[in-house]
Structure formats: C-alpha cells, structure tokens
Amino acid sequence: MLSFKSEPQLTIKPVGAFDLGRLARLHKHCFEEGWSRADLAHLLALPGGFGLIARQTGGGFASFDSLRGVGFALLRVVRDECELLSLGVVPAQRRRGVAAAILRLSMQNCFDAGARTMFLEVAIDNLSAQALYERYRFSRVGTRPDYYARPDGTRMHAYTMRADLVEALAGSPAPAS
Ligand SMILES: CC(C)(COP(=O)(O)OP(=O)(O)OC[C@H]1O[C@@H](n2cnc3c(N)ncnc32)[C@H](O)[C@@H]1OP(=O)(O)O)[C@@H](O)C(=O)NCCC(=O)NCCS
After folding, report:
1. What total number of domains does the chain contain?
2. Which domain holds residue 62?
3. Ligand 1 site-directed mutation target among 94, 135, 156, most atoms within 8 Å of CB
4. FRET pair for 89, CA 20 to 30 Å: which of 20, 34, 113, 135?
5. Is 99's C-beta closer than 6 angstroms to any atom of ligand 1?
6. Is residue 176 part of a domain?
7. Residue 177: inside a domain, yes or no?
8. Sign of the C-alpha dihedral computed for residues 48, 109, 15 and 84 taken in this order
9. Residue 72: CB partners within 8 Å, gap ≥ 6?
10. Is the pTM of this model over 0.90?
C-alpha cells in the first residue's frame, strides 16, 4: 500500500518580504499580546534587524505547518552586541526542540554578523522560557520593574539575561531536530 507520510523535518529560514502576515499570525498564536504586521515590519527594518521562521515539512498533515510556520525569532545586531527581541513556538509544537533549534541558529547568525554577546528580556513568571535560556548559557544580569504590560492591565517585571555567544555556541546542547 502506498503511504504519503514522511518523517517531519524542521527547516529554519530568514523571514522574507512575503512572510509578514504569517509572522504576525504566529506571534499572535504564541503571545497574549500579538504584534501587528506594522510593528513587525518596523522591527525588521531597523538597522541589523532580522527574523527567522521555522517550518515543519513532511509528516502528513504536518504539511499545514510548512505553510503557516511553527515558530519564529526576531533579532537585532548592533556591532558586537545583539538582542533577542522575540521568540515563540506555537503551542501544539512545544517541547519538541523547535525553540532550541531556532535559538541556536539565531546565535550562530548573530555571531556571523559580528555579535559576541546576546541580550534578552524575559518575564519573571515565564519559567519555561527561562529554563530554555539557562540551558543556552544565559544568566540574569538585571531586573526591569513593570517591563511588560499584560492585556488584563497588570504589569510584570522582567529579567535581563545575557549570554556570551562563543561560550553558548560551544557549550549548548545540539538541537534535537
Ligand atoms: C518558551 C518557548 C519558546 C519554548 O519553546 P519550545 O519549542 O517548547 O522549547 P524546546 O522544546 O526547544 O525546549 C528546549 C528546552 O527548554 C526548556 N523548556 C522549554 N519549555 C519548557 C517548559 N515548559 N518547562 C520547563 N522547561 C522548558 C527545557 O530545558 C527544554 O529541553 P527539554 O525539552 O529537553 O527538557 C515556548 O514555550 C513559547 O513559545 N512560549 C510562549 C512565548 C514565550 O514565552 N516566548 C519567550 C519570550 S521571552
């Protein structure tokens, strides 16, 4: 009997001009407070700004995920520093190594563009993201009070985290896929 099912494969590519709508939908799927196409276009147009989008191909119905994407990262490189502005994976594809793969490629791309240190902000109650970042050699270097505004009107403090890219790329675990 013929089978059209193949092993799912993760591909991660730079965000292109036609990905803005897809990226806005992905962002909305991952965060309570989605960013608009205009917000995203603005970030990507900043000097040193770029994005990565992960797609899942193969695996029967997973082909839907190859169209809409399963995760993304937005970054900015300024000289020898870079910032991870946003990172998300759709709920149905979490705990499969997608964020780890995106983060590792983000670090490599920033390193190749001349960055040696990566910074990010993460909400102090976002323990899953903190676990991911700690695994990739980020450590806390500060706290920003009331940094995030939540849709319910409350505010949440953020940690600023920092990673040395040489150490992180040499010592972090290889992604599962
Ligand atoms: C945080 C997030 C990006 C992780 O994505 P993911 O694809 O599920 O992460 P991975 O499968 O690559 O996890 C890699 C490692 O991170 C850690 N981790 C990820 N999610 C975790 C969770 N829910 N609990 C504990 N550790 C977690 C683990 O160490 C994990 O390795 P393991 O699965 O071998 O234990 C995802 O949960 C997400 O999109 N959340 C909403 C948006 C968000 O908070 N983004 C970060 C903003 S700063």
Report:
1. 1
2. 9-171
3. 94
4. 113
5. yes
6. no
7. no
8. negative
9. 15, 23, 26, 27, 30, 51, 52, 53, 54, 86, 87, 88, 102
10. yes
